[in-house]
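Before the break, one more example. Copy the sequence into your notebook; we will annotate it together after we see the structure.
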Amino acid sequence: MLSDRVPVRVIADFGADYLVDDGASQWRAVAKRCDPAVGDWVTLQGGFITEVLARRTVFSRRAPGVETREQVLAANVDVAFVVAAAIDVNVRRIERYLTIAWQSGATPVVVVTKADLVDSVDEPRVPARVILTSSVTGRGMEEIRNELQPFKTGVLLGPSGVGKSTLINELMGADVMRTREIHSSGEGRHMTSHRQLLQLPGGGMIIDTPGLREAQLWEGEDALAGVFEDIEALTLRCRFADCAHDTEPGCAINEAIAAGSLDLERFRSYRKLQRELRAVAAKSDARLRSEDRKKWKQIAMAAKRARW
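Here is what the structure looks like once it is written out:
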């Protein structure tokens, strides 16, 4: 174990404590006065994690539940692999995960798994590179490894059952992640119970995450431009700057939909994600204002007691 104040990396999050690595050894540590995530570089004091160093990239989502707060899934990631199964390529779901990827600052790549279970795979039309893979034939594995060279960190994003654990086992060349047998329908269940970072044999690192049942977006409406660049460009061609894309004359969005150059469902997906991001920002601002009011009320009460 290294001495205090020397940076180490968080490679697993077990909830109550974390597994950290200094390049030579690994050990578990509890965090105090900070909230680290897998991929973070941290320093320790007295054996406790006490400081999270500046993050290059951050993968966040709105934490599950009623309260509007941020949950950091992973940090300091270079490549975000958005994973979907070939038997269920849901483009709308992929767009949601791509938005999370763009928000982080990492490079997004779409990975379609289980390509051997279908006769042909229609690559999703998304603004990101698409890699088709198969754990049976080994297809696409070398392409993923190349994305992580030299010594880059990747993260796998996607719902349960799309084959993230199987994908890692193929990349590692060993069964390091528990998986369940795939049903005849091609569906599986995600077996990862915690986030962790693994060193790949040929270089590069990969972070697995539990299946995100609630892929709720966090703040950052500008991330939509990366996923919906075509729609953002069309809005600039509308006659009115405040066009609601409803019944206004000269609406470039409606014209593109009518002409068939813009898919209506894609536009609806864009509007849905846009509303969600704006709602998160509004609730977050309201919470911050409430916290500020509470803080200043406490300060005023303390000052009043001091005068007594």
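Residues 180-192 have pLDDT under 50 and may be disordered. Residues 221-301 form a domain with the Ribonucleotide Reductase Protein R1; domain 1 fold (CATH 1.10.40.50). Try to locate both features in your own notes.
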